[in-house]
Amino acid sequence: MILLTSKTLVVKNILKTTKATLFTDLVVGDKILISVPLKNPGHGRGLYATYLTIKNLNNNCSTRLSFSQLSNILKCFEIEEINA
Predict the structure, then answer these.
(1) Nearest-angstrom CA–CA distance, 45 and 49
(2) Which among 9, 49, 54, 61 is placed 20 to 30 Å from 31, CA to CA?
(3) What local confidence, expressed as pLDDT, does residue 40 receive?
């Protein structure tokens, strides 16, 4: 299986608090990684969401969210890519 992974992302600022798992404990300076397996999200009739794994590299905690859920949560943070 192929795993697509983001560059390391660092939290630069918290714009709004959230109660979302993993994100509620993020602090400025925390590093996160987002990954998604390259596979069919479902089969049969209907539409299936693709889930991403978000991992906090500072405390090794992770959670899974859909693209829609993650995009709404990321609006609460200022995040920057770093080359690490």
Answers:
(1) 13
(2) 49
(3) 76
> Which residue, among 58, 54, 53, 52, has the nearest Cα to 84 in the 3D structure?
58
For the chain, the distance separating the N- and C-terminal CA atoms, rounded to the nearest angstrom, is 24
pLDDT, tens only, 20-34: 999 999 999 999 999
Q: Which residues pair with 36 in a beta bridge?
A: 4
Q: Measuring CA to CA, how many Å separate 28 from each of 10, 12, 25, 58?
A: 8, 5, 10, 11
pLDDT 10s digits, 35-48: 999 887 777 676 67
Helix ranges restricted to H, the chain: 67-74
| DSSP-derived 3-state class of residue 13 | strand
User: For 29, how many CA atoms within 13 A lie in the half-sphere containing its CB?
Assistant: 2
Give me the numbers of helices (H) and strands (E) for the chain, helices first please. 1, 6
